[in-house]
């Protein structure tokens, strides 16, 4: 692991790091905020998954999480959203697919299966790196949250790994990517034309298939331009109600899809996770 940068903030350290990934077959970059801690102390780990077109940097620059994360004693890990590099298959004119749009799946279709394995990268390889390189990280206390495509990723990872993640929340998540306009095309390219394979990466379908999680918090702005065709939180609400999964869905008048929305409610999410970690 290489240290790209380290900066003191709110008594803690905001770092950016890179490493060669054997899972995505390219160099990967990620960010970690470590709060101020007593010597030898450990802190819960909270994973934040970003949305379409983003890197590790968007939430780091605009999410406004460090002040409260330092106060609560939370380590925040911010992975990239996709593999990177000149040899990584891409559609440069399509912001809903390719670099910046990995959708947190393990692609099975060539040529994307060579690099686009973000599900395994985060759950296995990057997790191992955090455990090894950050001794303050308490890997027995992990939560996960994210925005939009990253909200989708957080819900899926929590539902498929409830023994690992103790808490899960999302900002404006894509709750049913297998049918949403801006994700089903990517699913077909990554996972093949057989839509049954897509269910493993669809929160509502996972719930239908019997996967369970203790509870969810979801915040959504009602002025979000992607609400009707892409996000559709009511589908998650229906699935959770049918499965008796507690869901706290909060609709916020006037808020859009941007980091102005995310930063407004970031403190609520950090407190939600800290109470459960």
Listing every helix as H and every strand as E from the N terminus to the C terminus, the arrangement reads: EEEEHHEHEHEHHEHHEH
User: Structural class of the helices, strands and pairings?
Assistant: alpha/beta
- Strand line-up of the largest beta sheet: 1-2-3-5-4-6-7-8-9
Q: Give Rg in angstroms.
A: 17 Å
Largest sheet: 9 strands, mixed
TL;DR?
The protein is of the alpha/beta class and 277 residues long.
Structure description:
Helix content is 32%, strand content 25%. The mean pLDDT is 97. It starts with a strand and ends with a helix. It has 277 residues and is of the alpha/beta class. A hairpin with a 4-residue loop joins β2 and β3. A 9-stranded mixed β-sheet has the order 1-2-3-5-4-6-7-8-9, with helices on both faces. It contains 9 helices and 9 strands.
Topology:
Layout: E1 2-9, E2 12-21, E3 26-34, E4 43-49, H1 57-62, H2 66-72, E5 75-79, H3 118-133, E6 137-147, H4 149-160, E7 165-171, H5 184-191, H6 203-208, E8 216-221, H7 227-231, H8 233-243, E9 247-252, H9 259-276
Parallel strand pairs: 4-5, 4-6, 6-7, 7-8, 8-9
Antiparallel strand pairs: 1-2, 2-3, 3-5
